[in-house]
Structures are given as C-alpha cells and as structure tokens.
Amino acid sequence: MTVKSSLRDRRRLQTSREIQRAALTLALRHGHDSVTTEAIAAEAGISQRTFFNYYLNKDAAIIGNAPSFDDDTVARFRESSGPLLADLLQALRRLLSNSDLDRSTSQLIDRLLVRSPDLLPIFYGSLKRLRDQIADLAVMRLGEDARADAELLAEAISHALADTFRIWANDDGMSADSIVDIAAAKLQVLRGLLTPGVQPIPAASTVRPDTQAMTSTAAAPIRP
Amino acid sequence: MTVKSSLRDRRRLQTSREIQRAALTLALRHGHDSVTTEAIAAEAGISQRTFFNYYLNKDAAIIGNAPSFDDDTVARFRESSGPLLADLLQALRRLLSNSDLDRSTSQLIDRLLVRSPDLLPIFYGSLKRLRDQIADLAVMRLGEDARADAELLAEAISHALADTFRIWANDDGMSADSIVDIAAAKLQVLRGLLTPGVQPIPAASTVRPDTQAMTSTAAAPIRP
C-alpha cells in the first residue's frame, strides 16, 4: 500500500524531514533549550501554522516521525505460516525499505546525543513505539496471553535494530539493506548468551569487524 | 560487604524508604506536578535539609534508590568460571536478597504509573542503571569489544526482571526469592522465540499460571 506512495505522500514525507533537519540543526547550533517552534519554522522556510500540521511540538520535530508497518505488511505477516522470528524480520525489512532512510539525519541525531545525552529519553519514546508495534505483530501469532513474552522479544529486536542503526549512520560503506541482517546476527549472539550452562564466546565475527568498535557506545535510540 | 550492614546503614535505608513512600503517597494523592520537596519532607516528618541528604529532587525520591551490586558480589562474579548467564543470575539473586525488597512501595509505584503513565520515563532511568550494571558485569567476562552484545543481554535480563517485579508486587503469595528464577524462565522463553526457523509455541507454562495474566500489561520499570 505504501510501497507506491503518491506524489502528495512523498512531498509530505519530504517536508516532515526538512522540518526535522531544521530542528536538529538548530538544537546542535544553539542547544535544545533555546530552540523554539518559531525558529524551526523559520529555518525550514515554512509558517508556524504549517509546522503544527506536521509536529505537535519541538521535541516531536527533533525525533521525527517513526515509521510504522503498512497494512500490506501486517496482512502478509498475519497470513504467513513461516517461523515467527523470520517473519518479524521480513516485516522489518519491508518497513525499512518503505521508509527511505536518510543517513544524514541519523548522523545529526547522533551528534546531538553525543553533545546532549540528557536528550536520550525523548528518543526512547520513538524506540518504544517501534517496540510496541513489533510486540503487536508477535501477539498476532503468539496470542494475547503471551503478550509479556512478545514484549520481551520485541525489546530485544528493537534494541538490536537501534544498535545497528547507529552503526549504519556512521558507516557510509554500509548499505541500508543490510541493517536487518546485521540486527538478526546480533539476536543470534544474544540467543547464544542466553543458553544455560554454556560458557559463551562472544560471536563478534557475526557483526562486520570494521563497525564492531562503534557498537561499544551506549545503546542508541532508533531513528527513522 | 553489604550483606551484614551496620545499624547506621540500615537506618539510612529505612529513612530513604520512608521519604520515597511519602513522595509516592503525595503524588498519588495530589498528582505528581503538585508535589514539592517541602511537602515530601513534611509528610515524612523530616526537614527539607535532611531530604536533600537523601535525594537530589522529588523525582529521585519517587524512584527511590536503585540497588547496586556490592563489592563482594562483583568479586565473586569476576572470579567464577561458571556459565555467564548462571553467574549473572546468581549476582542478581544476591543483589535482591541484600536489598530487602518492599512490596508495598512497589505497589504504590504501580498504582502511580497506572494513574500517570507519563511518569514512566522517570522510572526508565532507574531500569537503565540496573541494565548498565548488568552490562558492566557481562563485559568483565566477554571483554570490552563485546560491549554491544553485553548490553543487548543486559537489556533482555533487566526487562525480564522488571516484568517479574511487577508480578511479584501484585501477588502476595509470591516470594521475593522466586523473582530471579521466574525472570530466568522468561529468558528461556525468549531464547526459544529467537530460534531461527522454528515455529515457537509460547511456553506460558514456565511462568506461574496464576500470575500470567498480570504480565500482559505494558513493561514495568524496575523498582527497588
């Protein structure tokens, strides 16, 4: 459904991105506290009224719009009889390929968080929205009784994905198509670490060696 | 080291708990925004000056002091050659048995979060502190290069633990001693869900059936 988006949809996405970039640029330049919606609108070359057509407030603009699973992806997931983890990863692949990721925006967010780690909580909300969407998908297959299990799984998946996003944002040589595969490899390392009675050897080799060093920073929030 | 705490330590812990209970009671009665450190001090029967000897601000008092691994537990963990997961769970058992958990405080927090879910982020900080401590332990064994893997593992463990805390807080029949074991069972369910190519059946039976229903609420933050 969203795969072939209309010109209007694409323009809307582009404008929301431009507002986000303006918000991030100003927060980096003057500090988060000094930024106003008025200044963001001016920087983006739009009216404040238009700003509020896109975002509720300045923090929403800084976070940007989180991608969400489109109806077609949800329907495919629901109808599939494949393995749960593989189907969830496939849904995430479709989500990312539909969202036309912008590396430079992710880099701005990274730089802002390095300068102002106290802004991390506002980005956690964005990660939580993705986590909740993944949990909702998993519940479709596991049943409502298993919501806590689905949430734990979704927590692990969204964390692995957020980590991989950070690697991708800072590695021009890494393609966006490989994000889900690298996150999936991280989840298999986790599975190994969760094996009881086994002395695990960290499977660093499952993650690209040149990006491994970057994963040693604190968990990054997801950014669309 | 902390296992046999001095009378002074125990008094200090008791006072910090009383201040926390006062803060939670006032937030439940009048709403979080209306609570002041002055009112909390008055409710707890202490001076405002004493309040600030225990907590930086009202939110810190509402969250309470997060438990941390004592030196002896860290030393035992470092020296053990046992399986990583088992050793982490053992360290958590010692942490919880040292922290003299207070169910009624946990219930107050639960009630406050049901009424004001917008306060969740202030509790996330507390959960993150525990997560970071677990990750630091795991890094001692896996090495600094594997910090991202250690953090993913710590994320899963702290989430499972927080979930189990919520079950324990609302189930008078559940002993605090079983918290880590139930969290460990949840982690094995997660491990099953992470198995590639397998159609997982949610292992609801690994979690006490009478508490299963409670796990269907959103992830709860940890509370000491």
From TrEMBL, chains A, B:
Key words, A-Z: DNA-binding, Transcription, Transcription regulation
Region of interest (Disordered), ranges: 204-224
Record's protein name: Bacterial regulatory proteins, tetR family
Pfam hit, one: TetR_N
InterPro entries assigned: Homeodomain-like_sf, HTH-type_TetR-like_transc_reg, HTH_TetR
Residue spans binding DNA: 36-55
Biased composition regions of type Polar residues, renumbered to the chain: 208-218
Domain of life: Bacteria
Organism in which the protein naturally occurs: Paracoccus haematequi
GO MF assignments: DNA-binding transcription factor activity; transcription cis-regulatory region binding
Record-annotated HTH tetR-type domain positions: 13-73
Signal peptide: none
Keyword field contains Metal-binding: no
Entries under PROSITE patterns matching the protein: HTH_TETR_2
